[in-house]
Amino acid sequence: MKVAYLLSKLNDLQLYSISVIEVFSVLFLIYGLIIISGYIFSAFFSIFEIRDYKRRNNFQDDAALLQSANLPAISVLAPAYNEEANVVENIRSLLTLNYPSFEIVIINDGSKDKSLQKLIETFELEKQELIHYHHVQTKKVRGIYKSRIKAYKNLRVIDKENGGKADALNTGINCCIYDLICCIDVDCILERNSLLKLIRPFLNNTKRVIASGGIIRVANNCIIEDGRIIEVRLPRTFLGKAQILEYFRAFLMGRMAWSRVDGLLLISGAFGMFDKQTVIEAGGYNHHTVGEDMELLVRMRRVMREQNIPYTVGFVPDPLCWTEVPESREILTRQRNRWARGTVETLMLHKKMLFNPRYGVLGLLSTPYWMFFEWFAPIIEFTGILFFIILVLLGKVNFQVFGIFFLVIYTFSILFSITAIFFEEYSFQQYKKPKFMFMLILTALLEPIIYHPIVMWAAVKGNIDLIQGKKSWGEMSRAGLGNTGKT
Amino acid sequence: MLIALLELDEWPFILKVNLLLSIFFLILTLLFVGLVLYLRIQKNFKEAHRKKQETKFIDFANTFLFDDSINKSKELANFKFTNIKSSYDYKILIKQVLIFDENLKGESTALIKEIFYGLGLYRFLLKDLNRKEWFNKARALFAFSKLGIAVPDQLIMPLLQSKRVELKQHGILYFLNTSKTDPLVFLDNLEGRLTLWQQVLIENSLKSFEVEIPDFARWLNHKEDSIVVFCIKMILSFNQFQNIPFLIDCLDHTSENVRHQAIQVLQAMEVPEALQLMVAHFPEETAANKRSILYAISKIGTYKDLQTLVPFIHKEEENLQIDFYKISGLFGDEIPVKKLLNIETITKDWEDFQEYSINSSIGA
């Protein structure tokens, strides 16, 4: 009797586990289908946006802009923390940007090295009167420096107590003089006409433009001379190459598509231009999050929506800014961990916008997309892997089914990357040598198996760290671009 | 065979779908790889073809321009027959004609236009102008306006009211560059905002304009604020000092942007007579315009003018207080700004400063 009872219970349990497995399988399948549809839509929107951009800029005359005294002046804000090795060269490069009126504001965020000393000596800086606006609360400013030399008259260096990147940018906002601010990473390489291109959305729009962003390109192993990219090359490592594909997907496909529907939620902290007044009205950069760039744009957009002011955010697909990406697994993991935390923090801070029709595209499309496909995706994927391992242990895996499902996901991943390569070829064709394209195609074949698990785990770890209350940026040492690829 | 080999008949439906999807994705992947290769080869081919066509055209144009012994109409027909096979060829030649036109002057320009007509480029662009697609229209407008070639007005006028900024922009430039007497006449009928980019382009075109620059006061009462702002800027750019009284009137304009621009231009044109009105308007002005007035005083006013504003800068207007301190500093040692200055408690300083001003009977 007891045995029969136990057998029936076991049978119930098996039936129960089978139905749970089925439910989970269906859920994973639906999620996968939604992701695939999202990617297909973004590819379509992007191709139209790139095509229109090319058409718009087929016959334009930028030279006319350079001669005009009526262009808005720009304050370029570049926070620097322990940048002693490259800061002087980077500033020299920034000072040669093609634009009729701009100032470079370097914010020394309490560097522990001799960055400030080096700047004072090289540019013959002298302390100015310590008077500046207090639009946003920041750590204490220790000094504001300007050069005695006329050639550097548009350089200003702010020395302040350490408070992190967001705090440094807020200080820059308080101390700069112009109404448009361009926030950059001091170690990135800007194309000479990058300001001219990035300001275009502000100039040629009938709506109020609150921000404009550009595409970030990978500079590792490129040949650089006098702070300019003179030959574009692929990074030497697989991790570097995989990130090129990732950047293609993120910028040429993702952000171009979001730009088309005016749903951009992120302008990269490495290079973005903002309307200072709107930034101040929104409260400046938030120094309580590690994703301050995304959080600022979301907040600015939210403020504009809540005040019912018509506005837009511009996006320029030209390759204007080149940056060094991490090529070691450890640093890459730290970076992605931080990005994941930044995304979650931003979405949590603005959870009111989620599925809220009041915020239009942002509420109904952008924030849900970021929640499901940026925040949840690595978690669901990781859960899926755990689920699979459990099934293997329980002996419940049908390897034929597994094989087919794996094949469909793998082929789609490759298709998505190859489409991104096609977009690059269709748009800007930066990688001139055919062998580079073949190497990228090869990378696309390996990336889902070798690279993707690393970034997925980093994102999962980011979520775990966030739950544990970790707030730090993590050390982001860089190899430096100064000698990269030099022949 | 594959079905038999894999015993697909026995597979569940979902697996069959997935297998088909995998094959579909794989085919698409191969297709995109093919497209990447095709684009690369096509771009290289087009680049080589472009270079070849450009070289041929440069040789032809130089002969056409500078060799009087040739039969020009025959050469034109011959070049057209042998070298223009596709719309891409037309596009290459149009670009080249524009480059030649930009670099040549006088008689040679007329010859370049002869080439333009003779090779059928005019007809090609006119067709573009009649097409539905905005980018074809914009390209044609761009070429016509650069070359200063007139086309029937009825084709261009509707484009001035176009919702596409690119079309509107090229329409504006077309009217500017083809006008013989009144280059800005289109402003009378222009609707919608004039973007900054359009303003810059108009200014740039006007600078190379050979006929008399129009009087910008004509549009200072335009219903579109951006056009008024643009005209105020141009009064400064073209030193139309005779319009200063109209600029002073703009200080009473209903639009904040217009008043802002007027303050800035009056300051740049160094018109101290305008200060009285600016100072009178100060209490009611917006924060941005208050700031501009302060800076105008620093350029064309006196310390006393500045002092009269002290009672109208309120305790909560910290940024304005900072502007005030900054500008006060420009007047040298006349005021005790440095003594009072403590940026950590700027509002407290301001109270002290107001008290000091009142006690010293300076202004307030």
TrEMBL record, chain A:
Instruction: Kindly name one Pfam family recorded for this protein.
Output: Glyco_tranf_2_3
Q: Which InterPro entries does its entry note?
A: Nucleotide-diphossugar_trans
Specify whether Transmembrane is a keyword of the entry: yes
Q: List the SUPFAM superfamilies.
A: Nucleotide-diphospho-sugar transferases
Q: Which GO terms describe its molecular function?
A: glycosyltransferase activity
* Record flagged with keyword Membrane: yes
State the superkingdom: Bacteria
Signal peptide, first to last residue: none
Residue ranges of the TM segments = 20-48, 375-395, 401-424, 436-460
What are the entry keywords? Answer: Glycosyltransferase, Membrane, Transferase, Transmembrane, Transmembrane helix
Family listed:
Belongs to the glycosyltransferase 2 family.
| Record protein name field | Uncharacterized protein
Organism per entry: Leeuwenhoekiella polynyae
UniProtKB/TrEMBL annotation, chain B:
Q: What is this protein called?
A: HEAT repeat protein
List the keywords (alphabetical): Membrane, Transmembrane, Transmembrane helix
Q: Where are its TM segments located? A: 20-41
Keyword Cell wall biogenesis/degradation found: no
Q: Pfam families this protein is in?
A: HEAT_2 (PF13646)
Q: What highest taxon heads this organism's lineage?
A: Bacteria
What is the phylogenetic placement of the source species in the record?
Answer: Bacteria, Pseudomonadati, Bacteroidota, Flavobacteriia, Flavobacteriales
Please name the source species.
Leeuwenhoekiella polynyae
